[in-house]
Every structure is written in structure tokens, then in C-alpha cells.
Amino acid sequence: ESDTASEISFQFNRHKKTPSIGSHSSDMASVSSVSGSVLSVYSGDFGSVDAQGTVEFALDYDEKNREFQVHVSQCKDLAVVDEKKGRSDPYVKTYLLPDKARMGKRKTSVKKRTVNPIYNEVLRYKIEKMVLLIQKLNLSVWHNDPLGRNSFLGEIEVDLASWDWSNRKLNWYPLKPRSLSAVNGVDHRGVMNLSIKYVPPGSLGKMCPKNPPSGEVHIWVKDVKDLLQLRPSGVDSFVKCYVLPDTSKKSYQKTRVIKRDTNPVFNHTIVYDGFHTEDLKDACVELTVWDHEKLTNHFLGGIRLGLGTGLSYGISVDWMDSTQEEVAFWQEMMSAANEWIEGLLPLRSL
């Protein structure tokens, strides 16, 4: 039940293209596209036991060291996973939400053969207090399986904005079933408003001075709404674009950074040429939204526009995974040459 993001680059094999790029962007860099997936908080849950029991913990913030501390004391009356052997091997896991990948997870040790484990461990997060106050703490209890088939035993979610920080005492809290939004797979990361257009080779007529000798895909990134707010001041966001499978410098484009705004307006157009009509079934436009910081950028969400067949030029690839909405959007563009197709697509984990 690891929670990681992987980076995979895939280069053209049989159909090598070197698309030239026109956009309003002035700064370019060579970056691999992120095509792994940040797994769910509930990844690895193979169990079917009902949540029961309680957990004892305390929360504190160390102002001097700028550190959030979760003191996990113990649990009582947890569900039994292996009924034949009458055992559970529980551990406690924590995340800071909504962007659990940003700060990562923390875990206690595993206590074997007990439904009343005692931990007395402190899970620590280096984080500014102002940023912490817009987070939620998700604390869950799991049964550890040697083969990784871990079972969910219960959870509690704490809104840190309303937490009484003068309360540093250990208290008991009932473990609850997983939240309804998690069961339904709800992962709201915002929505992107954009338009796309395909201009086939020579389709504008011989008299047109801008008639492209090869096909072009035009991408107009208008705005994004309801981005994850990672700081009290908002988020400093920008959009990256690749046409996969090409992840070279020539394929990479990005918008400018819009600061302190969870509803940024980009109004940025990107043009990729070198397209033939048959390439549209094998290529995929990947648009990802990122929070910009000095040391590292944080992934907020993205979309992939393509046919979602899992194949690119006859090769199996994990990034050809477009949703039904994204596939329908791409198909509409393919069937309406030279016309702008407008859409409002939800951002997702890629």
C-alpha cells in the first residue's frame, strides 16, 4: 500500500516526429512527464472487516522546531482480521489532506497478534503552522499482511483549523468506517476549461498564407477552477503540456505562473505541428497543473486527451489511459477538423 509517484519517459520508436512548437511561453526546459499514479489513501485494502474499537492519541505543534507532532499511544478492541487464528497485526498510518502526496505518510511500527496494541510513538511533520491550519489529519489503523494484502480497520479525520491546540492530553476517539467520499473514489482536484482544434495538412487551401504543410493541434488553456489550496495565500500554479509519447524538450511547453489564486486564468495557446491524421489515434496530449515553489514543484492534477486504448504505435503504454470524458473530447476534435472544440474537464491523479 505504498503511496508514491513515479516518472516514466517513453520515446517514439517507429514514427519518430520532432514537432516544432509555437506558444506564448518564453521559458523552456527538458522535463520527463509524470505518468505514474499517486495511490489512494485506502490503497492496498484487501479486508472486509467492519471498523470497530478506539484509538488514543494527542496532537501538538512545536513552535521552536516548526514541527507537527502526532503522539500515537494505543488502540483498543480492534477488529479481528484472521478469525481462524484470532489475530490482527495492526499499525497506524497518518496523512495530511487534501494533498497527501505533498507531506507524505507516517507509520507506526506493527504490533503482532493483538487487538489492543500499545505504540507510544510520535509521528512528525516539518510544516509551517499557517499551512498546517488549512489541512486535515487522516489517521487510520491497518492490519499488516506479509504479502502486502493489508486490511483497513478504521479511521478518524481531524479538521486542524478547528482543533483546540491547548489540548495536549491523550484522548480516546472511536474508529469510524472509511468516509463515503473515499468509498466512491471522489478525488476533486479542480476543473480545466480549454479548447482544442486539429488542422489537417493542406486543409486551409492553397491561397491561404498560413496553410500548414503538416497537420497541427492547437490547445487553448483558458482557466482552471477550484485547485487544491496548499497555502493560506492560495496556490502559485502553472500548466505543463506534452504530446506523448514524445517527452523531449521540443514537446514540452508551459504557461506562465499565476500567483495566489485557486482559480487561475491562463488564456494561453500552444500549437504543435508535424501531425498527420493517423497520428491522432496514437498520440496523447497530457496537460498537468503544478504548484510552483523555489525548490520543487508539486503536482495538483491533470488530464490526458487521447483515445485511451492503452496502445501507442502498437506498444502498450500506461499513459494512454484517458477517461470517457477525455476520449469523447478528443474524438470530437478528430471528427470536426478546423473547428474549436470547447470542454470543461475534471483534473485527476495521473
UniProtKB/TrEMBL annotation:
InterPro entries documented for this protein: C2_dom, C2_domain_sf, SYTL1-5_C2B
Main location: membrane
A Pfam family that the UniProt record links to this protein: C2
Keyword Cell membrane among UniProt keywords: yes
Example GO biological process: exocytosis
Assigned keywords, A-Z: Cell membrane, Exocytosis, Membrane, Repeat
One Gene Ontology MF term: neurexin family protein binding
GO cellular component: exocytic vesicle; plasma membrane
PANTHER family with a match to the protein in the record: BITESIZE, ISOFORM I, SYNAPTOTAGMIN LIKE 2
Protein name: Synaptotagmin-like protein 2
